[in-house]
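Hi C.,

You asked whether I'd gotten around to modeling the 290-residue construct. I have! Everything is below, sequence then structure, no commentary in between.
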Amino acid sequence: MKSLIAVLAASTLLAGAAVAQTPAPPPPPKAESTPYKVGDLQLYALRDTVFVLPNDGKVFGLDVGPEAVAEVLKAHGAPTDTITLGVDSLLVKDGDRLILIDTGAGGALITSLEGAGHKPEDVTDILITHPHGDHIGGLVKNNALVFPKAKIRMAEADWTFLKGQANQAALVTAITPQVEAFAPGAAITPHVTSVAIKGHTPGHSGYEIASNGQKLLAIGDTAHSSIISLAKPDWSIQFDTDKTEAKASRRALLTELAKSKETLFAPHFPYPGIGHVEAKGDGFVWVPVK
């Protein structure tokens, strides 16, 4: 039954329609926080929840079918009938600012945050990669702000996109006083810069964190599955608003990152979602941090 709940919640929450409605998430996994350093900055990966999607051709591999997806999963030693996606967030301690990148789906995030030594009211800035339910679902609970002192920042195009979703009217009303929209590529803090990554939503943004010559790029939903999205970056995925642009953007960014070996945070990859990509054949492979 738990597996079925997870599948149903994930299918609704992560799909394009997720922008319009955020249903209750599945039972959250054990809360967890994992520290990671970038130069002088202390970061924490924060676990929120896990979704399990069926390999039915409706989400991954739209242009090739579930059999082709199953072959890729099998080649990587993964189950061929389901696809597991994490839903996690990244915390950045930058001087007197405590920055949270995305808020998950409303699962175990707050408990994970407390495991990193902080409470919701400690968060000063929330950076949204894009306004799908599994990234903004933790902003509001019972029509009240979960992070009452935080500025909520997202790209102007995505803020316009979110305000156009009729079923998100209550959330928009609740967060509007806290929202500060920005133009693509804007510097958020001296150590955090937004990066436009096109195709997923109108203003989909990554965030590059840099300190003392070290960098980490939070890639948002550039890639969802650490197996399928990397091995076959040119395959369509249901969640992308502009699938042609997203495929081109995904391959271009992964190619660049494979050359630079820059560290990534990918919120849907296996927890803690920190590592780098390497080129392999016509695609890429994930190398998690040890």
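If it helps when you're writing up: The chain has one domain: 2-288.

Thanks,
B.
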